[in-house]
Design a protein that fits this description.
The chain is of the alpha+beta class. It is 30% helix and 29% strand. α6 (241-251) packs across α7 and α7 crosses α8. The longest helix is centred in the middle third of the chain and has 18 residues, at 512-529.
Length: 829
């Protein structure tokens, strides 16, 4: 043989310590010659490669009789592959003596397709305009590192655009599209929200990358905004004439107008469709009417009437007499100045023996009139309703169903509600409530409608008091909760509260007296229970703030883990000493494997400067849970305050604000409100199930906003709070055995809160203790991505094994109807 022979047997992308393209082959050259191989672009430029020459014993059989060089085989690796995607063609060339011949060819596009197939995957599933925010949703996974791809958003000038992301686990992608068990718990789903004004650029670039791995999606924003204008949407709707004609023919012109409104306003559309999808049909109502319960209490629905417009009265009464649960009575106490209300009731509902009507001789106000309706009742439970609202026809059925979960102990049942316009056609502002939340209730009357109470419990609590007119229901419910054994919540919207321009439902300024009455009712609640506290109105109508009197001034031990980052630690400590008004505290700094000399010099300096600072040394690897368990025995305080070193204090009396709750016998831990440096919310509580396992609610919300149900400005009970700033009695920490050290980094604080709740102790979030949080620097530089993800997956699996019930049934302090793929309290799809 005298000619050059060659072959490339293998061409593929390989995952080694990095992503590389591998070509494996062999070359035969005439006796006495040597060879080299190289990679050349179509422009004649040499593409950098790494080549290893090797023996190929198998070629002796293939090339029988040929005399081979010592190492006829070769393996060629190409790094930085994305840099060569734009190469039209590439050629592997063999050079031997004065001969220069091609072995094989390919294109940059071939490399790109193979790279995208095996190295990463992504899909932008939705881009929409929601009010003043642009929303981008999808997923992006790095198969090489078994992680989510990093995300950047840039304008056409190359400037980064600020966004908020709520990452989520996407099992449909991890186990379905990618079919890789290693990815099961990777949070590859993204939910980006970007300010509309920041997106006013010709092109928007969504960069999904980890180093070289990934891609960039380009969006034409001029086209996007044109397509998402109301004019464009309206044209698209009207273009579908056949569908519109069918809708008008089958449903009527009014329903067609409603359909158009839904399409033009995504928020309106979401809830409009939600109401329709959750309203039970006639067949379901019929089955409910045939249901026989173990306990079938009589439910007395008490309603004070006062010059009720007949249209509204009819809607209310029809919704009551058509209830699928039949063992009810409707007690109507009429304080009207006109006869038409009574005549209408007798004419249309007089034959229904369940309807009891009494014309009052005088109108003495809402409380007295309602008490007269209660006096008419013969039922086992009393249910309240206003005279012009509307109930779903399965409302009482669902309430009785809740009572039957524990017939002897359930004393109170309440349901979700929303608002309805005066014409009864549009529903809005759904109030998806948590299960009974004492501290949230003390912040506002979130229970409101529907409220049902056992008659014997009401007898103990007492009837309505006219002293609290305007907030008479808040006062009554407070007194009833004081007497109740079990309180059940029905997470279904069963009551539609009609909004009047002059009612507190829509215009709080018109009834300022009602909010003062509510404050007085709350104050009397504390007085009855012997709780030393003061109730105050806040700047938000209907929201109250409680100041609990400190029973003592106990020593508080502040535990701060630290690794280097003395600038952050110094900022944190200075804010404590310069801002904090509470005096009786000590600080225990847990040194965690620092390497910089300046760190240890700083430790000496601050211990000399402050007599109440001690530095103790943790010598093992970073383990957040173990570090705190190690530190607690060194703490002399009655209360522990866990604090990250990358925080700084905003509220001077932050310790007092947290201690007010921590000192209560029924409270196990208290969390604070934390902000990012840009004054958006970092922490306002943890919701179990959010983002897959547990996540921060309202993360990224501007500091000035109140949040859904004004939860951002309301003290409330939650399932968990972050340990970046958490106070608890030392005795409680010891009672639950401290942190579970298997949670080295993630979910250790959530697990701790769950253990505390298992002691029947509350976890309270107070918005009145405010700090900045600059994110986790306590452990120094994060480990490599693959290691981090493996650890994260282990901790996710452990949490799921320890707490399966709450993950299955949902967080009791978060509605089942609210989304888990973001923390903004949007409707769950």
């Amino acid at each position: 043989m005298s000619d050059i022979l060659s072959s490339v047997d293998v061409k593929q992308i390989v995952f080694e310590d990095r992503v590389r393209f591998l070509m494996d082959g062999w070359v035969y050259v005439p006796v006495g010659q040597e060879f080299t191989v190289e990679l050349i672009s179509d422009k004649g430029e040499r593409i950098p490669t790494e080549v290893v020459y090797k023996e190929r014993p198998d070629l002796v059989e293939v090339l029988k009789g040929a005399v081979l060089v010592e190492k006829p085989g070769f393996t060629m690796w190409v790094d930085h592959l994305p840099e060569y995607f734009n190469v039209d063609t590439w050629t592997v060339m063999v050079r031997s003596g004065d001969r220069y011949e091609p072995i094989c060819q390919g294109t940059g596009e071939d490399w790109k397709e193979e790279y995208e197939r095996v190295v990463y995957g992504y899909n932008v599933e939705r881009m929409d305009l929601m009010g003043q925010m642009v929303v981008i949703q999808g997923w992006a996974v790095d198969l090489f590192n078994c992680s989510a791809l990093g995300i950047r958003v840039l304008n056409d000038a190359g400037k980064e655009i600020h966004f908020r992301n709520q990452p989520v686990v996407r099992l449909d992608v991890n186990k379905g599209v990618c079919n890789d068990d290693r990815l099961e718990l990777v949070q590859c789903g993204f939910n980006l929200t970007i300010k509309k004004d920041d997106c006013k650029t010709d092109k928007l670039y969504l960069e999904l990358k980890n180093g070289e791995i990934g891609t960039t999606e380009v969006f034409d924003m001029k086209q996007f905004f044109a397509e998402h204008s109301k004019t464009a949407k309206l044209k698209a709707i009207l273009k579908d004439t056949e569908k519109n004609k069918e809708l008008i023919r089958d449903k009527g012109f009014g329903e067609f107008i409603n359909y158009v409104k839904c399409q033009l306003d995504p928020f309106y559309a979401d809830y409009t469709m939600w109401v329709r999808n959750h309203r039970v049909g006639k067949s379901v109502l019929k089955r409910q009417s045939e249901k026989r319960w173990r306990y079938e209490p009589k439910i007395s629905i008490v309603i004070p009437l006062y010059n009720t417009p007949l249209k509204y009265l009819k809607e209310l009464m029809d919704s009551l007499v058509q209830q699928s649960y039949r063992n009810i009575e409707i007690c109507l106490a009429d304080g009207s100045t006109k006869d038409e209300v009574g005549k209408y009731i007798k004419r249309h509902y007089g034959r229904d023996t369940r309807v009891l009507y009494q014309r009052l001789k005088e109108n003495k106000g809402i409380s007295w009139n309602t008490n007269q309706a209660v006096a008419m009742a013969t039922g086992d439970f009393i249910m309240l309703s206003d005279h012009d609202d509307v109930l779903e026809k399965n409302a009482v059925y669902e309430i009785v169903k809740a009572i039957n979960t524990d017939p002897k102990r359930v004393d109170i049942v309440y349901t979700d509600e929303d608002k309805v316009t005066m014409d009864g056609k549009q529903y809005f502002e759904p109030n998806f409530k948590p299960d009974f939340n004492l501290d949230f209730f003390r912040s506002s009357n979130y229970i409101c409608h529907i409220f049902v109470v056992r008659k014997t419990t009401l007898d103990k609590a007492g009837l309505f008091c006219s002293e609290y007119d305007g907030a008479q229901d808040f006062d009554l419910i407070l007194r009833c909760t004081e007497q109740a054994d079990l309180i059940r919540h029905v997470p279904k919207v069963l009551y539609h509260w009609r909004s009047h321009p002059a009612s507190t439902a829509e215009n709080p300024d018109s009834k300022m007296y009602a909010f003062e009455a509510g404050r007085k009712a709350l104050q009397e609640h504390y007085n009855r229970l012997g709780i030393r506290a003061q109730a105050y109105r806040t700047e938000v109508f209907g929201r109250y703030r409680t100041e609990y009197e400190l029973l003592d001034e106990p020593l508080i031990s502040v535990i701060i883990p630290n690794k280097d980052h003395i600038d952050d630690l110094d900022k944190c400590l200075k804010s404590i000493y310069e801002v904090t008004t509470y005096k009786n505290f000590e600080i225990v700094i847990v040194e965690n494997n620092s390497t910089e000399k300046e760190t240890f010099s700083y430790y000496e300096q601050i211990q000399n400067l402050h007599s109440n600072i001690r530095v103790i040394t943790w010598k093992d690897e970073f383990n957040y849970a173990a570090i705190h368990n190690f530190a607690v025995p060194y703490c002399q305080g009655e209360y522990l305050l866990l604090l990250n070193n990358d925080t700084s204090i905003i509220t001077p009396d932050w310790m007092e604000k947290m201690l007010q709750y921590a000192q209560r016998e029924d409270v196990g831990a208290v969390g604070a409100k934390l902000y990012f440096p840009d004054d958006t919310v970092q922490h306002a509580g943890v919701i179990i199930g959010l983002g897959g396992v547990a996540g921060h609610i309202f993360s990224g919300t501007p500091r000035v906003e109140y949040g859904y149900q004004a939860r951002l400005i309301s003290a409330q009970d939650l399932s968990a709070v972050t340990a970046a700033c958490m106070m608890m009695p030392k005795a409680v920490f010891e009672a639950v055995g401290g942190f579970d050290e298997r949670f080295k980094v993630a979910f250790n604080d959530v697990d701790l809160c769950m253990k505390i709740r298992a002691l029947d102790k509350k976890i309270v979030f107070t918005p009145y203790a405010e700090l900045y949080h600059y994110e986790s620097k306590s452990r120094g530089k994060e480990e490599e991505t693959a290691t981090k993800m493996a650890r994260f997956q282990q901790e996710v699996s452990l949490f799921r094994k320890k707490w399966p019930e709450i993950l299955k049934n949902g967080d009791p302090y978060y509605s089942v109807h609210l989304a888990l793929d973001n923390g903004n309290c949007t409707l769950r799809k």
